[in-house]
Design brief:
The complex is a heterodimer of chains A (248) and B (115). Chain A has helices at residues 26-54, 76-79, 94-118, 122-152, 179-211, 214-218, 222-247, and strands spanning 158-159, 165-166. In chain A, helix 1 packs antiparallel against helix 5 (179-211), helix 1 packs parallel to helix 7 (222-247) and helix 5 runs antiparallel to helix 7. Chain A has seven helices and two strands; from the N terminus they run ααααββααα. Chain A has a two-stranded antiparallel ribbon with strand order 1-2. Chain B is mainly α and 115 residues long. Chain B has two domains: 22-76; 77-115. Chain B is 70% helix and 0% strand. Chain B has helices at 23-45, 50-71, 79-114. In chain B, helix 1 runs antiparallel to helix 2. Chain B is elongated, with a radius of gyration of 24 Å. The N and C termini of chain B lie far apart (83 Å). The chains are: A mainly alpha (248), B mainly alpha (115). Chains A and B meet through helix 1, helix 3, helix 6 and helix 7 of A and helix 1, helix 2 and helix 3 of B. Chain B: Keywords: Cell membrane, Membrane, Transmembrane, Transmembrane helix. Chain B: This is Cytochrome C oxidase subunit IV. Chain B: It is found in: Cell membrane. Chain B: It is a multi-pass membrane protein. Chain B: InterPro entries: Cyt_c_oxidase_su4_prok.
């Protein structure tokens, strides 16, 4: 009779199986680890930026006398000083400040949508998702303008040794500095913009599903939460791009 | 009966929707705005240099902390999840710093030994 008591006790520790050690759903965990791998990609871009910048001559004169030259790396606030509707006015970093504010605001409306999802408040989720779509779209529009201006160039352009002038930027030549400067601008802000575009499409899909009541019937708004994680990551990357590309 | 017409497992709202708890969210938002404003203050009042760059990087890390901890909710996850995200990120930061100084060395080598 006592043989039945010698059975092995079931293991009940955190990592013994049968439970969720990280207390997060499969989908959310996979989103976290995807974002981690994406952080490596962006990290690699910023590392290349730092390496390239430090392997070029810095500008050593006073900022007031700064001239564009392929000899040295440009001062960012001399490159990014245009604002739509203020042609020829020197407004250093003003437009990028506006873009940063718009993206931070979109992050806030996103987290408000996630919060509303936890309360199963369909109307609030719709409202905040719509605001996020609006701010995200505005950011993308701003970036399109920024690219157009960067590619078109300024009125003066850059004076070359042979007396000719270069206007704007492409992959081979740009008026702002060494060719690598424009290449990295296109790759880093372009890759970020691509992420924002994907996030924006996901937000539109989530909005349509919310309006149709898909998540409400499911009993939870976890999809909004997962897209939210992605959207905040895009904001996070912008914080770093902003510092390393525009400020330093 | 077709599967799609079975609504017995559907969620049905019972009772009142709780009130929104948004105090922490807006507080985080104002912290992020304030940190960005401080960054611009330094950008316009201070001459470029190592010190200013260090200030920018520290402020950026603060901003990153608030976004990841509050907006992405990582602060409220389990310890194991927090560490599995933070450790790889810390390592990549290390690589970033290492390669920036490597860039300076590479530049020095070219200018001093090949020109």
């Amino acid at each position: 009779m006592s043989t039945s008591t010698t059975l092995e006790e079931p293991k009940t520790g955190t990592w013994d199986g049968g439970n969720e050690p990280l207390k997060a759903s499969y989908g959310k965990l996979m989103m976290w680890f995807f974002l981690l791998s994406d952080a490596f990609t962006f990290g690699a871009f910023l590392i290349v930026y730092g390496l390239s910048r430090h392997s070029h001559l810095p500008y050593t004169g006073t900022p007031d006398d700064f001239q564009f030259s392929t000899e040295w790396w440009p001062i960012p606030e001399k490159v990014f000083n245009a604002f739509p509707g203020f042609h020829g006015v020197d407004l250093p970093l003003a437009f990028v400040a506006l873009m940063t504010m718009i993206l931070i605001l979109s992050s806030v409306t996103m987290v408000l949508a996630v919060e509303a999802g936890h309360r199963m408040d369909k109307n609030d989720v719709q409202k905040w998702l719509l605001w996020t779509i609006l701010f995200g779209g505005t950011f993308l529009g701003c970036q399109a303008w920024e690219w157009t201006h960067f590619i078109t160039g300024t009125d003066e352009g850059m004076l070359l040794a042979d007396g000719s002038r270069v206007f704007g930027a492409n992959m081979v030549m740009n008026q702002y500095g060494p060719p690598l400067f424009a290449n990295l601008f296109f790759f880093i802000t372009g890759f970020h913009g691509f992420h924002v575009t994907i996030g924006w499409v996901l937000l539109v899909i989530a909005f349509i599903s919310t309006v149709n009541g898909v998540y409400h019937k499911r009993g939870h708004y976890e999809m909004v939460e997962k897209i939210g994680l992605y959207w905040h990551f895009v904001d996070l990357v912008w914080v770093f791009v902003f510092t390393f590309f525009y400020l330093i | 009966m077709a599967a799609h017409s079975d609504h017995s497992n559907d969620f049905h709202q019972t009772g009142e929707i709780p009130k929104a708890q948004t105090k922490v969210i807006w507080k985080t938002f104002f912290i992020l705005v304030a940190l960005t404003a401080v960054e611009f203050l330094f950008a316009f009042t201070m001459d470029a240099g190592t010190l200013r760059n260090a200030i920018f990087i520290v402020l950026t890390i603060f901003k990153a902390f608030y976004i990841v901890a509050e907006f992405m909710h990582l602060k409220h996850e389990t310890k194991a999840l927090i560490w599995s995200i933070i450790i790889p990120l810390a390592l990549i930061m290390w690589l970033m710093v290492a390669l920036i100084s490597e860039g300076s060395y590479y530049f020095d080598s070219i200018t001093n030994y090949f020109n």
